[in-house]
Amino acid sequence: MAQVRDELSLEEFRALPEQTPYLEYWNGAIVQKMAPQKNHSWLQDELGAQLRAYRRVHGGHSAPEPSIEFANPDDRRELIPDLAYWAPGKPVGGPVMLPPTLAVEIRPEGQSRAWLRSKCGYYRENGTDAAWLVDPETRTVEVFERDGTVLGEQDTLTSAALPGFDLLLRDLFAVLDAA
To answer: Is 127 left (phi over 0), alpha (psi -120 to 50) or beta?
Structure first.
């Protein structure tokens, strides 16, 4: 995480020109996301395809890198998860979206696990039903739902927030072996 600038209002932040890597808003501080690398991008694409397939059957909306406003009056943030899914009936919001059913973070090489765990915890505490932290290096998915389960390649990823979703993690992580 690289802090770019302090003490901007949310309105001033939204007036900034879009740039990559993306910027996030943390209570007046502007924080730059790490640029995605190959493994991150491939996992984002594959997991995005899985969420799109789930959405076609079960409904809802999914998106890569949406801007989501968390309007906790004591802790205002506009964050950009790597992927998000909104179940049918969950409000999506306008140009800046509302907390999703699922937020996914994929750990880029060199990014602190603790930092991303704190983001996933924040998602859960502020209106997101489930969060997943995907780690290409360890080939694990940490599920922030009820008990913080860590799943490995031999496990199946499921979620109470996405009934009927199941993904063999060996199939997800197989995209890393394709190069």
So the answer is: left
* CA gap 173, 164 in Å, rounded: 20
Grouped pLDDT means (10 residues each) for the chain, 179 residues: 63 78 80 81 96 97 94 85 97 93 94 91 95 96 89 96 97 90
CA-to-CA distance for 123 and 82, rounded, in angstroms?
13
Residue ranges of domains in the chain, CATH in brackets? 35-177 (3.90.1570.10)
Q: How far apart are CA 81 and CA 103, in angstroms?
A: 6
CA 63 to the chain's CA centroid: 10
Per DSSP, the residues of 77-92 read EEE--SEEEE-TTS--
Q: Which helix (H) or strand (E) holds 61?
A: strand 61-64
CB 165 within 8 A of CB 54: yes
* DSSP string computed for 104-128: EEE--TT--HHHHHHHHHHHHHTT-
Q: How far apart are CA 93 and CA 134, in angstroms?
A: 26
**C-alpha span between 131 and 83 (Å, rounded):** 10
Asked whether the beta carbons of 123 and 99 are under 8 A apart, the reply is: yes
Which of 24, 33, 27, 32 lies closest to 9 in space, CA to CA?
27
